[in-house]
Amino acid sequence: MKFNDKRIILKLKKLSQNSYSKYSKFSVSSILVTKKGKEFYGVNVENASYSLTICAERNAFFSALTSGEKDFKRIYIYANSDKLPFPCGACLQVMSEFVDEDFEIVLFSKKEKREFKFNELLPKRFKL
C-alpha cells in the first residue's frame, strides 16, 4: 500500500475535531477512498442512548453510498488515542456488503500505524 501518510494523517486529525464523542472521549475519524481516488469523510457521533451512536467508518460509507459510489479501495481510520481504532463488528459487516477481501484498512493512533486487508479482520462474512 502506497499513500501519503503525512497528508492523510493531517486530514484525519483535523476531521477528528468534528467527532461528537462526549461520552467515551474516544474521537475517531475516517477517510474512505474510492477506486477512482474520490474521498469521503466520517467521524463518530455518539448519543446518550448508546445504540444510536454511529461510527466514523459507517458515516463515511453512508456518505459515499448517498453520492452513488460503490467501488472502494481503502479506508483510513484515526483515533486521537494511544490505542488503534479497530473497526467494530457492525462496521465490518456494513463494509462487507461493498468491498472485496483485498480492501485496505489502514489504522492510525497517536503512537502507531497498522495496515490490514479486509479479509484479515473479517475472514468469514455473514451472507443471506
From TrEMBL:
Under the heading SUPFAM superfamilies, the entry gives: Cytidine deaminase-like
What reactions does this protein catalyze?
2'-deoxycytidine + H2O + H(+) = 2'-deoxyuridine + NH4(+); cytidine + H2O + H(+) = uridine + NH4(+)
Active site residues per record? E57
Give the organism's phylogenetic lineage: Bacteria, Bacteria division TA06
Q: Which domain of life is it from?
A: Bacteria
User: Origin organism of this chain?
Assistant: candidate division TA06 bacterium 34_109
Q: What is this protein called?
A: Cytidine deaminase
Domain (CMP/dCMP-type deaminase) spans 3-128
Q: Any idea which positions bind substrate?
A: N44, V45, E46, N47, A48, S49, Y50
Quote the NCBIfam families the UniProt record gives. Answer: cyt_deam_tetra, PRK05578.1
Q: Which CDD domains match?
A: cytidine_deaminase
